[in-house]
Amino acid sequence: MADNRIEYGFRWFTGNPYPMPAPIEMTVADDESFDVSGGASNVKLGPGDPVAIQSDGHVDLAAGNETTAEAAFGIVVGVAPYWDGDFMKPSETLPSDVSYDSNLSRQSKVHVVPVTAGMWEVDVDDSTTATSRSAYQAFVGENADHILTGTTDNDRAYPKLDISTHATTSSLIWRILKVSPTLNNEDFSGANVKLVVVPNVAQSPAFSATGV
User: 158 — phi, psi (to 5°)?
Assistant: First the structure.
């Protein structure tokens, strides 16, 4: 068994329009901390991370099946410069606990593509639920939750598909569409097999608030 190369988070696969549509700039609350329940604290938010809109209108890291899984609004694809205490600093990721003290000209922002815009490639989180291409193909049409796998040694949330949750259950967040054709799927008995998914339950659904 050889593990497949890990790739981070949710990656744009295809959709309408193709290529990836223009992202939406969304705000992050002042002094927001991005945490993985039972895992990493104060991680960085960046491309590949699922986010959900909170009651205050800002986006935050969408919790996964490591706690109570949360339907995502979108996937982060970029980060705007953030206030580091002295100036607006360009960065590929947004650190936790960035304070802009309600100065909206210094507000933290991320670029987000809604999950309903297309299809997403994502790594699975174990190498035991399925160990062959045919076993993964049998999951097509089923649903699964995502899970944030970041640990205390990580500075990112490391979202993956919690493949052990695969089922026809309508409340699960992601619908499995296909095994990714990527050449990085080298060994289906190894870790980090890549699947293509679409949202089954989304925070801002295209058609219905209830999954199938």
Answer: 50, 65
Cβ(52)–Cβ(203) under 8 Å?
yes
Annotated domain spans of the chain: 12-115, 119-199
Residue 141: which region, alpha, beta or left (left: phi > 0; alpha: psi -120 to 50)? left
CB 109 within 8 A of CB 84: no
Q: Give CA–CA dist 72/27, Å, rounded.
A: 15
Please answer whether residues 78 and 47 qualify as being in contact, where contact means their C-beta atoms are separated by less than 8 angstroms. yes
Determine which helix (DSSP H) or strand (DSSP E) holds 24, and give its type and residue range. Answer: strand 24-28
Amino acid at 19: P
pTM for this entry = 0.95
Asked whether the beta carbons of 196 and 121 are under 8 A apart, the reply is yes
Q: Residue 120 pLDDT more than 90?
A: yes
pLDDT average, residue stretch 130-148: 98
Query: Hey, what amino acid is at 170?
Result: S
Tell me which residue of 133, 150, 139 sits closest to 193, measured CA to CA. 133
